[in-house]
Amino acid sequence: MSKLKDYIKGKYKKYELFAPSEFWDLTDEEKAEVTNGCGAASAAIDFVPDTIYGLDISASCDIHDFSYNEGGLEEDKFIADLFLLVNVLQIIRQSPSNNFMKTLRYSRAIKYFYAVDFFGDDAFRFLDPECEAELEEEDCC
Ligand SMILES: [Ca+2]
Q: Where do the domains of the chain lie?
């Protein structure tokens, strides 16, 4: 579980983004194991696009995947979702485009945020606050 203060800035897929400190320690192979761009890994059909008006935002989704896989409490999920928004906005800011296109992309970024806030619970690994084990496990605590 990653708290607000655990998110630090680094370079990933050519963008300056925020991720939990553990993310930056992973090798490319380890990152590939827990990330798959935008959309849930468990979805039979991935209907979530990796782009916003042609701009690839999958780097921000990879970090979000990592945080969801780490899991935690409700507040950890909210922090993960907030940093998805922060990172999508970072990618938009750091990409060359005119203000009209930036405005369209910023609006879409907000929609991404509330989509994961409202519908992301199934993909997030909620952990028991007492022992940090997954809530479904019978032998917890
Ligand atoms: Ca994903």
A: 61-135
